[in-house]
Input
Amino acid sequence: MAGAGDSIRALLRAANALLQQRRYHAALAVIKGFRNGAVYGAKIRAPHALVMTFLFKSGSLREKLKSIAQATYAHSRNLAYFVFTYKGLLAAQSRLQGKKIPFHTFLAACIGGWLVFGDNNPINSQIIMYLLSRILFGLSRLAVEKGYIPQPKQDPFPLVAALVWGTVLWLFEYHRETLQPSLQSSMTYLYEDSEVWHDLSDFLIYNKRTDSK
Output
């Protein structure tokens, strides 16, 4: 037993020594990136899938838990693959050119996005839309920073909020099929289900009655 313990401690020391080797840093960063992508994807998707599934999806408890597990796995896997691909391509470009330049980041991420997130499915669609909204805000701020557009005299956020809500409700009312299914479900709950009730039970306590009265 003592011999096994000594072997484990020696293995841990060797592993820690390897992790301190500067020449292996790029390769180890790729592996750590894969790990962080998997963990972060699971942390983000699991609670979201749990809430959305139990709020809006029908089916047995087993079916709901299976759906949550599948969504969590898909998000975690895709993010892990993307980080692995991105950091690997970034390291390869830096090694080939001898230095890192901004275009390396863009190219590596483009290739990773094409390979990992190119499949048009609900999980990838949500991730891309999440990123797109952040990109639009980021590019707007960058354009002001660089002087490409003048600094607004007043905070433009109230106008942005008005246009976003006006547009999404118009789409929901007249072109619903253009919106993502999860958004349709949320807006149906908020704006259509609130129009229907029969008594106090489904006015205040439940959204919809389950009986046939």
